[in-house]
Amino acid sequence: MAEPSFLTAVRESYDTVAADYLQRVPPPAEMDPLSRAMLAGFAELVRTAALGPVADLGCGPGRVTAHLAGLGVSAFGVDLSPKMIGLARRAYPNLRFTEGSMTALETRDGELGGILAWYSTHHTPPQWLPDVFAEFHRTLAPGGYLLWGDYAGDERLRPTHGYGRPVSYESYLLPLDRMVELLDRAGLVVTARLEQEPGGRVNRPHACLLARKPERP
Q1: What is the C-alpha to C-alpha distance for residues 18 and 133, in angstroms, rounded to an integer?
Q2: Strand ranges of the sheet holding 206-212, from the earlier edge strand across to the other edge
């Protein structure tokens, strides 16, 4: 079966920008306080529930994966880009990083105590999000948590350059209520939401959603 074209575009683009991304995107210590607080709360919840490891999906160079590990969470990273995975493995050789797509995770049913999707779903066309969120539901243990963070809006972006390099990916910004609806349809119940207006390095509205897979169907 042929790979969807958007996955090819994302992989090739992030292979192109990997080194520049590492230089331009701030590490977790330089995130805004509210985003760091959401990550810390998520880490505490999954650590306390003790249902399994956390998969950082779209982990890039692994900084946030390592941040979660520093918060006492058993975490591993998955990314489409081989070059991003190479950067992550070199920087954090004690952690596990694998190439893969969140559309078809190489993870057993109910294996994960948590999933982090941190600014990693906006390149996914909206018609593919039900498949992605179904994979999240499949791989989470009953009672497991999802923390989603990304840009919010109602816009399709077609940049020609990113991080100073040519790219071919697109971005799809959806209203937050629409994301909540899609998660709910996938069987993931949103328990907390944080919306932030543009500020600092971020020039678009962005948000976090904390969701949980019910313990019983």
Answers
A1: 26
A2: 96-99, 75-79, 54-57, 112-118, 140-151, 206-212, 189-196
**pLDDT tens digits, one per residue of 20-34:** 999 999 899 999 999
Which H, E and C letters describe the chain, residue by residue?
Answer: CCCCHHHHHHHHHHHHHHHHHHHHCCCHHHCCHHHHHHHHHHHHHHHHHCCCCEEEECCCCCHHHHHHHHCCCCEEEEECCHHHHHHHHHHCCCCEEEECECCECCCCCCCEEEEEEECCCCCCCHHHHHHHHHHHHHHEEEEEEEEEEEECCCEEECCCEECCEECCCCEEECCHHHHHHHHHHCCCEEEEEEEECCECCECCCEEEEEEECCCCC
For 93-129, write each residue's pLDDT tens digit. Answer: 999 999 999 999 999 999 999 999 999 999 999 999 9
Least Cα distance to 41 among 194, 201, 177, 196 occurs for 194
Spatial separation of the C-alpha atoms in residues 76 and 3, rounded to whole Å: 24
Tokens (6 digits) for 34: 């509210």
| Residue 122, both tokens | 């906006």
The reported pTM is 0.96
Distance separating alpha carbons of residues 48 and 50, to the nearest angstrom: 5
